[in-house]
Amino acid sequence: MRTVYREKKYTCGEYLDVYIYPVFETGKLGGGKRTKRKPSTKAQEKLNQKHRKEKLTRMLHANFTPEDLELHGTYEVQPENDEEALRDRANYIRSVKRYAKKHNLGEVKYIGVTERGKRGGRYHHHFTIHVEKGIDRDVLEKLWTKTEGHGYANTKRLQFSEKGLAGLGVYISKSPIGYRAWTASRNLVDPEPVTRDGRISGRKAKELAEKKQDSTQFETLYPGYLASGPAEALYNDVNGGFYLFLRLYRKDGKFIKPKKRKGGRKRGKS
Fold first, then answer.
1. Which pLDDT tens digit goes with each residue over 250-269?
2. CA-CA distance, 53 to 137, in Å (whole number)?
3. Which phi-psi region, left, alpha or beta, contains residue 215 (left: φ > 0; alpha: ψ -120 to 50)?
């Protein structure tokens, strides 16, 4: 069975997400039908959650900047159920749109996530909001708190780093409710992957995985970008394949502020 490694790249604003993994020729082995092992329900759900967080982070990177805002909204009187909480989320988005239209503020983009805390079971919302001509954060907070039963609202500017908004993506999707993990405006860019087979050989994939801490080897493959940190690498002992994920950011990024490395340590050294 011939194995080819696939490179899948997502360009998301100033970030580049790269996946490297094996693909196998389909067909029969030994004249019989090839069976495919399915992951357990628990393992599949964990994998699905990981993919949701990665997709959410890509959407954040592709559509928002440090000029945009993140709002956290809570309750004084908790909704009776998920449906009521989701209606509150939709109503808040409508109120932001109405305000922007009334004051001629231009296009509105948003991502909204509703969560129910695992410990106390309390509902709360996270909204990432872009308004074309800008909007005062006090206005966004008042649009939430003016509704009876709503609690406090807190806003802050988005803060990008070498890892982008990955921390935010994880934070706001810990325990989402609803059929979809989040709601988003239709005018958002949803990055499409560019795939290429054969650029990375099996030997090279193994080398990259074994030296995942060495960011320079990845930066050589993707000139113009710097690695945001060590790659994630997994070896599958069932099919003998290596699976890698890495996030990079543009060297000439306009709003990324790389952290200073302690002790003058050079890139790629562990």
1. 998 877 665 555 544 444 43
2. 26
3. alpha
